[in-house]
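Last lecture ended with a question: if I hand you only a sequence, what can you say about the shape of the protein? Today we answer it with a concrete record. The protein is Phospholipid/cholesterol/gamma-HCH transport system permease protein. Below, first the input exactly as provided, then the predicted structure, then a couple of comments.
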Amino acid sequence: MKMLSSYQSGLGSFFLEIGEMGKFTGRYFRELFSMPFEFREFLKQCYQMGNKSLLLVSVTGFILGLVFTLQSRPTLMEFGAVSWMPSMISISIVREIGPVIIALICAGRIGSSIGAELGSMRVTEQIDAMEVSGTNPFKFLVVTRILAATCMLPLLVIVGDFVALIGSAIIENIKGDVSFTLYFNQVFAALEFTDLLPATVKTFFFGFAIGLVGCFKGYNSKKGTAGVGKASNSAVVFTSMLLFVLDFIAVFITDIFYN
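The predicted structure:
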């Protein structure tokens, strides 16, 4: 009975948090379309999330291209299909692997940073002080960060995909003596608009999820300084789960419309 009661309590807490996040999302859209807009803070957050994540995303993409090509090449050689390597790598990275892996990396880099920053401001009563002084902390802190994450993640994914293809091209040049010109000619011949559009559109939703969960966890942080670490950790875990759900929905919808 105690186990059942604990399970019901945990399930109830989960649905309660989902409801609170729904209210949080509704408030975000109300504040987003109301004036004034904190444009300077938005640009600052774009720099913090975009420029300072660029090196991490580039290194991740480069290693992804190297490893994926090295792992795939022996299998394709068994079937005499090495010539399909550029097409397979490019479609796999652009459609699925690149957006998901880079979104997960950004969830750890951006989501945890937002959760810790807003959590620290909450427990040190800086947010309460902003409310007392007449500033709208939700618009200044939350709206700008969610919008910046939504705008920056697609750009980071594009950079990561490109660097991953460069890494793959280097392996093909070394292992298969394939020139960079030939490799990228085959890549661009294989990619179609139906590969690029859904993959790009879903990255906006990935960025929105990262910003939303990070802000929600940090803005509602409790229990003193221990709550800051919990907010940061739960933001990454919850965002990672949400990204896989969003990716499944995106793939399912894409399959309906394009197949």
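Comments.
1. Residues 57-258 form one domain.
2. The chain has nine helices and no strands.
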